[in-house]
Design a protein that fits this description.
Blueprint: E1 3-4, H1 16-24, E2 29-30, H2 33-37, E3 47-48, E4 53-55, H3 60-73, E5 77-80, E6 97-100, E7 107-111, E8 116-119, H4 125-132, E9 137-138, H5 151-157, H6 164-167, E10 174-180, E11 186-190, H7 202-205, E12 214-221, E13 223-224, E14 228-236, H8 239-251, E15 258-263, H9 264-274, E16 283-291, H10 293-309, E17 314-317, H11 321-332, H12 334-337, E18 344-347, E19 350-351, H13 357-371, E20 375-380, E21 385-392, H14 399-416, H15 435-438, H16 441-454, H17 469-472, H18 483-486, H19 489-492
Parallel strand pairs: 1-3, 4-6, 5-6
Antiparallel strand pairs: 2-4, 7-8, 8-12, 9-13, 10-11, 10-12, 14-16, 14-17, 15-16, 15-20, 18-21, 19-21, 20-21
Helix pairs in contact: 1-3, 8-10, 13-14
This protein binds flavin-adenine dinucleotide.
Length: 493
């Protein structure tokens, strides 16, 4: 079953569509229902909403003109990168338009001397690395969707990836943004220089899920390719022993570039889809070390010894780049591979303290037995970021809702273990109703005040991140203006 969040959308204000057409040209404005269907959802495919129109601007100037047109007409808008988000962040809002950024795909400036690169938001994550790879540089955050997702979407979601354990998330690699605010003002936040006076607004924008403005220019930090990379695939006869190996590696003071785990069902799906040659095991661990050659060689031996001590049933050391790529293909294809073993699947994304991984995985295994739905586990073991993949069949009445309830139950386990609602996929519409499980009404109200300071009319991706009566079915607690706001001072500050 597909959830259509709302009833038929409000009609466009008179003349509004013509204004949009005048900005982007007839060819780049979609209002036909067949064309709009493509934009009804992102990677959270069971939640859909038809937009009023989709506009595909050619440049930042057109983005600004579209936003101004929306502000003047009071029409909400949603930025869309490449639509791979898994929490419904790019889902249209009723009566609103989608501003698709795929045509803003130019590389604007490469500054190798300062290891910086400025790009438009529609450039894909991997194209940044491809562009500078010949010179020995790369862009570190590597979501598994990196071949297709946009850097603008990465900024909005503060995306992570397998190598974020050592290198950090998008927020650690973006130094400046040009942003079109909800009223059409264009601001530059951050700079090419090491530090800036004043409050740090970049971390506020990064991860705000498209609710504070549209990024039209992104300056990222480039890293030098490490001298040496070594990759190990280790198999274990239980998730617990694999988890103990992870704990031992970290306790030994080793910071792997990546340390990923997949369970038996995830291995089977990856094998069916991309044949990485993974062994038949309860769990596989992929451990990658990078850095200076001598250091990597020494510490890699320690990692191998730890895995042996934890009774690894199979060890494979990548002998060359092709073998390494094959191992990573198995991991990076893991989500999409679920399509080989289940008609539908729900990707959950929660975080637990590393020390609680085993406990929470046991609770998930118990939930799997009770729910009757298969659950595969793929996770960034080093930073406790779980990705349970809940298999279901949307053709079976009630199973979509059942899968969503199971996914929500897993989040409760994460929170009870002292974790968080999301590690990297964002809140979007998917988890907005769970926000009160993690934050008090005062916390949520404070966050809303920040949002309203930048978008008082609430036109920029409304209905995302925060619980609303429309989404959650009951009043989540009213938005409470701060006394400063009530006195009208916020405008002047
Ligand atoms: C198979 C698969 C694997 C994935 N693996 C990972 C992973 O390893 N790590 C990870 O973090 N994520 C992962 N994701 C999730 C997704 O790819 C990321 O969230 C990605 O950053 C989304 O980029 P996008 O261009 O597709 O954005 P979209 O889905 O188009 O949009 C995502 C959000 O960003 C906003 N947005 C987009 N562009 C802009 C902009 N220029 N300015 C302001 N807001 C904007 C949208 O409004 C929306 O809220 C995966 C997804 C899939 C399908």
């Amino acid at each position: 079953m597909t959830t259509r969040v709302g009833s038929p959308p409000p009609a466009a204000p008179p003349g509004f569509i013509d204004t949009l057409r005048a900005i982007v040209g007839d060819e780049w404005l979609y209002t036909d229902p067949h064309a709009l269907a493509v934009y009804e959802c992102d990677g959270l495919t069971h939640a859909r909403e038809t937009p009023l129109a989709v506009a595909l601007p050619a440049d930042a100037g057109q983005v600004r003109s579209l936003v101004v047109a929306c502000a003047e007409a009071g029409v909400p808008f949603v930025a869309r990168g490449h639509g791979t988000g898994l929490s419904g962040g790019a889902q249209p809002v009723p009566g609103g338009i989608v501003i698709g950024l795929a045509r803003l795909n130019r590389i604007l400036h490469v500054d190798l001397a300062n290891q910086l690169m400025t790009v438009e938001p529609g450039v894909t994550n991997l194209d940044i690395t491809r562009h500078v790879a010949p010179y020995g540089y790369y862009y570190a955050p590597d979501p598994s969707s990196q071949q297709v997702c946009s850097i603008g979407g990465n900024v909005a979601e503060n995306s992570g990836g397998a190598h974020c354990l050592k290198y950090g998330f998008t927020v650690h690699h973006v130094v400046a943004l040009e942003v079109v605010l909800a009223d059409g003002r264009v601001v530059t936040i951050g700079s090419d220089t090491a530090d800036e006076p004043g409050p740090g607004l970049l971390p506020l924008l990064i991860g705000s899920e498209g609710t504070l403005g549209i990024a039209t220019r992104v300056t990222v930090r480039l890293l030098r390719r490490p001298e040496r990379v070594k990759t190990l695939l280790a198999a274990f006869d239980s998730i617990d022993t694999g988890g103990q190996a992870v704990a031992d590696i970290i306790a030994a003071g080793i910071v792997p570039a990546a340390i990923e785990m997949m369970d038996r069902l995830a291995i089977a799906a990856a094998e069916a889809a991309v044949h990485p040659g993974f062994p038949d095991a309860a769990a596989v661990l992929i451990v990658e070390l990078d850095g200076p050659g001598a250091e990597v060689a020494a510490r890699f031996e320690e990692v191998v010894a730890i895995c042996r001590a934890r009774q690894a049933t199979h060890l494979e050391i990548a002998a060359d780049e092709a073998q390494r790529a094959r191992i990573w293909k198995g991991r990076k294809a893991a989500f999409a591979a679920m399509g080989r073993i289940s008609p539908n699947y729900y990707v959950q994304d929660g975080v637990v303290p590393r020390s609680k991984l085993s406990e929470v995985l046991h609770r998930i295994a118990d939930l799997e037995r009770r729910s009757g739905l298969r659950i595969a586990n793929v996770f960034h073991a080093g930073d406790g970021n779980l990705h349970p993949l809940i298999c279901y069949d949307a053709a079976v009445p009630g199973q979509t809702e059942h899968a969503a309830a199971v996914a929500s139950e897993i989040l409760t386990y994460c929170l009870e273990a002292g974790g968080s609602l999301t590690g990297e996929h964002g809140i979007g519409v998917d988890k907005a109703c769970s926000m009160p499980k993690m934050f008090s009404a005062d916390d949520l109200s404070a966050m809303q005040r920040v949002r309203r300071a930048l978008d008082p009319a609430m036109l920029c991706n409304p209905g995302k991140v925060f619980p609303t009566p429309r989404l959650c079915g009951e009043a989540p607690g009213p938005y409470r203006p701060h006394p400063v706001e009530r006195a009208g001072l916020a405008e002047r500050l």
